[in-house]
Q: What sequence folds into this?
């Protein structure tokens, strides 16, 4: 094992690395024979460190045909100012090594080379098929006004097979095959095959390779950059000057695709610190011919087929770096240890780090309900009869002025008798008049929440920050991803409110009442929906706290917990109060079929009504599974299991029951 790797690692600040760069360090250490503890000890210097994570990731590093090696770590350190130097043991140069000075005070050790003929032979075999024409230029040259030697048309009417046969026939004389060249300028060769009729772009027959050349970095840094970015290089050639020519596999099907891929390649390299000579973007471009000399220095074939296998595999690598997605998790490894679920933030409803949406009409008091939730979390109290974990909460106020927001919190706390000491657990971010789209807000929000011990972020309301078309699934999918990012990068629960669509909601399921795309129904881990009950003024006067009270039913659609029995509440401004008397249990939701039947004086339910009601209950109890139990349906309806059995018999053309499990035929 190379001690220089550990020296270099000490000069790399783990907290400055992206997730993928951190993974690359682990892979490099394993490839060099180190133990996972080396990676683990170094990783402890980062606030993102999680005990046991390095060991688990280490087991997934199973090797590759193009492994990440210790050179990756050394390059990371060099990028941060580290200057490696070794003159002991394996650090000595080979007797036949070629030393080149690259102009920046660093010597670049050239690898042991084949003979000139062997180099060109390997180059042609790597890039060309035997029947393809190869274009090159040796002695057909001219000087421009500045005295610089330039290539002319050269030769383009010999196939790769013909050249290889000649090279084999003259193993000690490269000029016998390609002609003599001027030492002042060397020689050139095209890396894409031509049709034998010319040398322009239209004469190219296969758009397989592109040239990457840079004079901006030292040669040693060019080499390290090409390898660090794992370019799919077919041939790497020293120009005999200040650059390494990388013949990169772009595997394009035509000239248009070639242009797009080369543009992407050059832009990507620029973004990663390599200034590329963009004059080389044409498929008919010449590169330096290996084996010939230039001003006394050899144009040398350094390596063939390094980096990723082809363009497709390299794009997978590029996307892997850019998206910083997690690595694979293997179930067998996970099952060896106890499964630790996130603790419940709201018992029976929502876990810490998950997402919840509160939906309802404009009269439901959704903002009040969310403020009540913030207060219940702050003091560890009840919210809609659900126990809350005492937590620190950030309330993002997008709608009402700051003074009114504070006053609402105070009024609710006074009405509920909550001690002001719990207000220490609530932070308010007043953004009325400062709201920006969610794609711009999310990073700013994460900075304020990260590492501040918050358990929940409540955003009220989302229409102020929504991006895209609310009715377009792709737009809303992207919008909802911002909440995933908040949860994953901070560990908090993201809670937000949404409004109902227009029209009557009583005949819809809770998850279908929200406005816009169905993404809002599928994305959250918990949906809490409020629908108004169809009460009369007389009923309100008789049963409510005051004549301005309204009655509501809270229904849920949950991913992590069984759906709860609907909760009936009064909205007695400024607070919601759970109906403890049960008087609201028999009241129907506004717009529901039962409410409409009751108003019309018709009998309560037809068979079709009962069947639809049973269908809704079955879907809710199954939670996406193919079946549910008789007990779950009985709990949903708040009836006996015998009553459920009777319903199943009534609808035996659609449902069947086996050993207490209910299935839809």
A:
């Amino acid at each position: 094992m190379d001690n220089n790797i550990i020296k270099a690692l000490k000069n790399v600040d783990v907290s400055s690395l992206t997730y993928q760069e951190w993974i690359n360090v682990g892979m490099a250490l394993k490839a060099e024979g180190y133990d996972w503890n080396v990676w683990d000890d170094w990783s402890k210097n980062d606030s993102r460190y999680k005990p046991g994570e390095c060991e688990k990731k280490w087991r997934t590093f199973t090797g590759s045909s193009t492994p990440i090696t210790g050179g990756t770590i050394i390059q990371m350190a060099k990028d941060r100012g580290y200057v490696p130097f070794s003159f002991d043991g394996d650090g000595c140069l080979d007797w036949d090594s070629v030393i080149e000075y690259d102009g920046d005070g660093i010597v670049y050790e050239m690898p042991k080379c084949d003979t000139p003929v062997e180099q060109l032979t390997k180059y042609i075999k790597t890039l060309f098929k035997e029947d393809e024409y190869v274009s090159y230029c040796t002695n057909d040259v001219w000087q421009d006004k500045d005295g610089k030697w330039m290539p002319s048309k050269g030769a383009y009417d010999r196939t790769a097979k013909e050249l290889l046969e000649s090279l084999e026939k003259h193993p000690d004389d490269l000029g016998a095959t390609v002609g003599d060249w001027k030492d002042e300028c060397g020689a050139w060769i095209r890396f894409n095959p031509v049709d034998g009729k010319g040398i322009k772009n239209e004469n190219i027959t296969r758009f397989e390779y592109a040239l990457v050349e840079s004079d901006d970095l030292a040669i040693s840094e060019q080499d390290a950059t090409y390898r660090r970015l794992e370019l799919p290089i077919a041939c790497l050639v020293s120009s005999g000057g200040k650059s390494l020519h990388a013949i990169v596999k772009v595997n394009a099907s035509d000239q248009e695709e070639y242009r797009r891929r080369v543009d992407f390649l050059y832009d990507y390299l620029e973004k990663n610190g390599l200034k590329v000579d963009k004059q080389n973007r044409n498929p008919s471009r010449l590169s330096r011919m290996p084996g010939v000399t230039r001003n006394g220095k050899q144009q040398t074939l350094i390596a063939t087929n390094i980096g990723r296998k082809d363009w497709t595999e390299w794009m997978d690598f590029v996307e892997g770096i850019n998206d910083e997605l997690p690595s694979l998790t293997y179930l067998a490894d996970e099952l060896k240890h106890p499964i630790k679920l996130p603790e419940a933030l709201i018992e029976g409803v929502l876990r810490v780090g998950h997402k919840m949406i509160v939906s309802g009409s404009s009269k439901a008091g959704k903002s009040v309900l969310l403020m009540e939730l913030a207060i219940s979390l702050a003091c560890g109290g009840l919210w809609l009869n659900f126990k809350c974990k005492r937590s620190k909460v950030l309330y993002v106020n997008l709608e009402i002025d700051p003074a009114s927001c504070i006053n609402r919190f105070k009024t609710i706390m006074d009405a509920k008798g909550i001690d002001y000491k719990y207000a220490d657990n609530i932070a308010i971010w007043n953004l009325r008049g400062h709201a920006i789209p969610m794609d711009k807000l999310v990073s700013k929000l994460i900075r304020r929440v990260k590492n501040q011990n918050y358990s929940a972020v409540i955003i009220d309301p989302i229409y102020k920050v929504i991006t895209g078309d609310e009715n377009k699934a792709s737009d809303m999918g992207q919008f909802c991803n911002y909440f995933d990012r908040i949860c994953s990068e901070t560990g908090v629960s993201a809670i937000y409110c949404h409004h109902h669509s227009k029209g009557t909601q009583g005949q819809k399921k809770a998850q279908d009442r929200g406005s816009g795309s169905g993404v809002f129904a599928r994305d959250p881990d918990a949906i809490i929906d409020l629908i108004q009950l169809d009460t009369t003024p007389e009923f309100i006067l008789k049963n409510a706290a005051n004549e301005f009270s309204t009655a509501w039913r809270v229904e849920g659609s949950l991913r992590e917990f069984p759906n709860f029995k609907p909760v009936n509440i009064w909205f007695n401004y400024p607070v919601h109060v759970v109906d403890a008397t049960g008087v609201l249990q028999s009241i129907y939701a506004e717009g529901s079929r039962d409410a409409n039947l009751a108003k019309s004086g018709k009998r309560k339910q037809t068979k079709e009504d009962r069947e639809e009601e049973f269908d809704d209950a079955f879907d809710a109890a199954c939670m996406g599974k193919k079946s549910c139990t008789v007990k779950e349906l009985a709990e949903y309806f708040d009836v006996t299991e015998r009553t459920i059995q009777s319903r199943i018999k009534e609808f035996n053309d659609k449902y069947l029951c086996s050993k207490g499990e209910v299935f839809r035929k």
